[in-house]
Specification:
Strand content: 5-15%
CATH superfamily of the largest domain: Type I PLP-dependent aspartate aminotransferase-like (Major domain)
Structural class: alpha/beta
Number of strands: 14
Helix content: 25-40%
Low-confidence stretches: none
Bound molecules: pyridoxal-5'-phosphate
CATH class of the largest domain: Alpha Beta
Strand order of the largest sheet: 1-9-8-5-4-2-3
Distance between the termini: 25 Å
Number of domains: 2
């Protein structure tokens, strides 16, 4: 068969990426100053409907900077979902604080607001919500709870550029929000991240911390221990070109998700990515949670698809099961996340996917059912 291998999520460089990058090279503005950084930051702030955006080197650094802006430190607790990428929780540890994991809820696969309420202690400083695979968190109960306990809410929107919750865009609902522009995300800058906020004071702290802590007005004056978490002008050039075409990127991902829903609607035992009526998912990755009686063990199904030239990925291991977080979480129950993580598969979801490729993936998946 001459069919090309189908990746899970490949970048689509369909705009002015090449032109902008060549402009960086020709002008020699290749490091962490330059016009593309300013343009990318202001365009991204506008896209999120907030006043400030600070670029940084990746989405993990963005989460770290957001936590530092809230002065998270030793002895603090931060509530995070257990079903997420590891980079949501690790920055809590970088700050000397403790991530407190909560289970998912079955409708959206996101953190369960009721479990969040149970996790609040006198040490809790805030909550990081994650719009998993692009589907917004049910924010209102969490924002209410946070307000009641005097906590902040940071959105880890690394997978959800452009998703909306009751008309509000991801990134505009927390005190701060973080994004990733890694190569497999909705839009990419190669490596890259962004912290966005409406709060000028928080934005200034983030900007200062990401540039070694240097005073924003006084060169070589470092009143705090900062980091080199800067993005380069070349990365920003790619990011800006991607952002200029974000409607296309989001449109493609939503179309692909709709094709999967249509083609698999007659297949029993496949639960596809959530799409609640109050949410517009960014559909970063279309996922399928497989019924084991019909499809057998998830990993076997993935192996068959792999042999058919279809790349898939398993869901993230719930973070409370990873070696560094396991001991603190023995005996706690996370049944929903564990069930989803055992049976969940990321299906090919690149913006460049064709209808024919989606049909092929669906045919192969359908053939696995017994
Ligand atoms: C990708 C991702 C990150 C980290 O972003 P990097 O740019 O890879 O550092 C953080 N959180 C979530 C939920 C992610 O998916």
């Amino acid at each position: 068969m001459s069919r090309q291998r189908i990746p899970v999520a490949a970048p689509a460089l369909v705009g002015r990426e090449r032109e902008y990058v060549l402009d960086c090279l020709d002008s020699t503005w290749i490091s962490s100053n330059g016009k593309y950084l300013e343009r990318f930051e202001s365009a991204f702030a506008e896209f999120c409907g907030v006043r400030h955006a600070v670029s940084c080197c990746n989405g993990t650094a963005a989460v770290h900077l957001a936590l530092l802006a809230h002065d998270v430190g030793l002895g603090d607790e931060v509530i995070v979902p257990t079903l997420t990428y590891v980079a949501t929780a690790n920055p809590v540890v970088y700050c000397g604080a403790q991530p407190v994991f909560v289970d998912a809820e079955p409708r959206t696969w996101n953190m369960d607001p009721e479990r969040v309420a149970e996790a609040v202690t006198s040490k809790t400083r805030g909550i990081i919500v994650v719009h998993l695979y692009g589907h917004p968190v049910d924010m209102d109960p969490i924002l209410e709870l946070a307000e009641k306990h005097g906590l902040w809410v940071i959105e880890d929107a690394a997978e959800a550029h452009g998703a909306t919750y009751r008309g509000r865009i991801a990134g505009s609902m927390g005190s701060l929000a973080t994004f990733s522009f890694y190569g497999n995300k909705i839009i990419t800058s190669g490596e890259g991240g962004m912290v966005v906020t409406d709060d000028e004071r928080l934005a200034e702290i983030v900007r200062q911390l990401h540039g070694q802590g240097q005073d924003l007005e006084r060169r070589y004056w470092f009143p705090m221990v900062g980091f080199n978490y800067r993005m380069t002008n070349i990365e920003a050039a790619i990011g800006l070109a991607q952002l200029e075409r974000i409607d296309w990127h989001l449109g493609r991902r939503r179309e692909i998700a709709a094709w999967y829903r249509e083609e698999l609607s007659d297949v029993e035992g496949v639960e596809l990515s959530p799409h609640e009526p109050w949410a517009e998912s960014a559909f970063w990755i279309t996922c399928a949670v497989l019924n084991e009686e019909r499809f057998g063990p998830r990993d076997d199904a993935m192996a068959v698809l792999d042999r058919a030239g279809i790349e898939t990925r398993p869901f993230f291991y719930p973070l409370h099961t990873l070696p560094m977080y396991r001991d603190a979480n023995v005996g706690k129950g996370f049944p929903i996340a564990e069930d989803l993580a055992r049976r969940g598969v990321n299906l090919p979801s690149s913006a460049t996917l064709t209808r024919d490729e989606v049909s092929y993936v669906c045919d192969q998946l359908r053939a696995l059912a017994r």
